[in-house]
Predict the 3D structure of the following.
Amino acid sequence: MIAPFAGFGLGLRKPHHAEFLETRVAVDFVEVISENFMVEGGRPRRILREVRGRYPVALHGVSMSLGSADGLDGAYLARLRALVDEIEPLFVSDHLSWSRIQGFNSHDLLPLPYTGEALDVVADNVERAQDALGRAMLIENPSTYIDFADAQMTEWEFLDRLCARTGCGLLLDVNNVFVSASNHGFDPLAYLDGLPHGRVRQIHLAGYSQGAELLIDTHDQPVPDPVWKLYAHILPRLGPVATMIERDDAIPPLHTLLAELGMARRIAGGEIRAAA
Amino acid sequence: MSLLDLQRDMHAWLQHADATAADRLGGESVTPGLRVHQNNFRVQLAGCLEESFARTRDWIGGEAFHHAVVAHIERVGPSSWTLDAYPRDFPATLALLHPDDPEIAELAWIDLMLGEAFVGPDDNALNPADLGEIDWDNAVLGLAPTLDLADLTTNAPAIWSALAEGMDPPAVAFLPETGAILVWREGETPRFRAIDQIERQALLHVRAGLSFAGLCTALAEMLGEEAGVSRAGAMLGQWLADGLIVSIEDRRA
């Protein structure tokens, strides 16, 4: 079981590196994209070492490809393990998705059909990853744009079974729940209520954009009201959890993100109940 | 449909817009989602190439660069877990598209290798002032692990530098004989320098483990005794000043 950590953090992004290193930013932890630092050396590794000296760090990956039918990339796991050993992160996470098949890597978080076969594949891959890393992982629910007709269970049922089989925890992206619910027409509250709450260790809060036909998980907008409402709904149902604002594009000044994080703190502290 | 078949079809859709694969994935009901993923795939790769080859793009212009990106995405699928690997074949694509303009692929190689050096292995370059007594007859030089070399037929380094400084680049000029270019990282800063074939060969010999005395002998055979030893000394001084030497070991040790 992954030890819980209660706190509020931000994703570490290039425009804010200097502020994180030169001032004491009011966060309890930072999250970094693992692959950005799975390099041999140079400035990125030096910055990560210095940030780690000042803040707890969570490693969040995008390239493990836990849903690949042909298994995981051993070289990737070895390099991630080396980073984990050096950084000793709070959490190691990646997505319920796939990106690589038979030597092709899409560099996109591609959707899975929620079938028994897919559950077997993902569970085997999560177990292999956890063995390679020497620790349990957090798995993040993705934003999805395709609802496969042959699905045999909902996404939250899939995650519940995956946790039970592998011992992994969950990184709950509340924005992704809202985006997928809007795109596929399910009730986001049913999703949140159906999750194994005791497994959730981290929360992502982010924004989305309206695409031509679907909502797109762009992470380039402030956290919108519907996402705050879902956050206020789920938070009392969870144990101690690490909440963070995840912004990947159109990155605003740090004080803007800290103000958004303040909103999360107020909801968690019960100051904002009407939002629920 | 098995998961493996589904993933193969998704690959065919993403890279080659294979309509029959899209039909097997669900046809009209999944078309909007497939379009989102295909856009994500292309935007991600195009963004990676634009970021990695900024000076090359400056030189050939946005339209020609976009054409090269589209051709490259069709020609080469990304295979590594790291997007940093995807740019590696782009200079070859540019060479195929612009066979009569070799400066384009050479500019791309500079862009590429500066990026690779930026995140290459760390080292501790020797400070010339800190060198103690060295038995040069038995000294073996260790070179920076980020060092890389390529042939050079044009004035691409001068073009690259002018573009990087926002100045008007010089016209393309062909070198009277094939030279070389050297890229490495000094501290946290990637650097490059145009060199001649003699220095290129010298660096390759040193990287292969030839002692400094052996290098002097090789250069003396090529240039004559006095000129060869003098050139070896000059190169050693330049390499130390550039931060290219990370160790000097005594081969008897």
